[in-house]
């Protein structure tokens, strides 16, 4: 494991509450056509390499969007809540996942919706993740 995205996926897949709330799994970019719901999709919105005066610092600021989808609002909300709890424990602590260190995760925008073409409820939230290689 060598990226912040892979570390986040590992955190989510190893969390019991997320695993129970997302029988369809965690998927990059596009949900498979025959996925079971509820399911979770993630997108990397941006990845900024933090520079120091002498070059790259090794730290990255990654903005990720996590989208929970489900056939009912309670199932979708439960998944979104489990994701938030898995990524943003209180008190916050530095975490090492494989060869990646996560210095901090800051939740940002959250929004809910309903998609008439798929008849699925959704909840999306952006997270800012600071970290790099150990």
| Biggest sheet, spatial arrangement of strands | 1-2-3-6-5-4
Decide which structural class fits the backbone. alpha+beta
Biggest sheet, in brief?
A: 6 strands, mixed
Mean pLDDT across all amino acids: 93
The percentage helix is: 10-25%
State the shape.
Answer: elongated
Q: What is the string of SSEs from the N terminus onward?
A: HHEEEHEEE
In what range is the share of β-strand residues? over 45%
Whole-number total of structural domains: 1
Query: What is the strand tally?
Result: 6
Q: With helices defined by DSSP (H or I, 4 residues minimum), what is the helix count?
A: 3
The CATH topology comes to STM4215-like
What is the CA-atom radius of gyration, in angstroms?
15 Å
Ranges with pLDDT <50 over ≥5 residues?
none
Give the CA-CA distance, first to last residue: 11 Å
What would you say this structure looks like, in words?
With 134 residues, the chain is α+β, with helices and mostly antiparallel strands. It has a single domain, classed as STM4215-like. Helix content is 24%, strand content 49%. Strands 1-2-3-6-5-4 form a six-stranded mixed beta sheet. Strand 5 and strand 6 form a beta hairpin.
């Amino acid at each position: 494991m060598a990226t912040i995205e892979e570390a986040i996926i590992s955190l989510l897949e190893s969390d019991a509450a997320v695993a129970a709330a997302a029988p369809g799994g965690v998927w990059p970019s596009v949900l498979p056509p025959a996925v079971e719901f509820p399911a979770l999709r993630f997108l990397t919105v941006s990845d900024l390499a933090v520079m120091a005066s002498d070059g790259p610092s090794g730290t990255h600021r990654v903005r990720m969007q996590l989208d929970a989808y489900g056939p009912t609002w309670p199932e979708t909300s439960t998944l979104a809540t489990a994701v938030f709890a898995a990524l943003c424990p209180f008190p916050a602590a530095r975490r090492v996942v494989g060869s990646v260190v996560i210095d901090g995760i800051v939740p940002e925008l959250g929004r809910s919706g309903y998609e008439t073409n798929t008849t699925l409820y959704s909840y999306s939230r952006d997270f800012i993740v600071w970290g790099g290689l150990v």
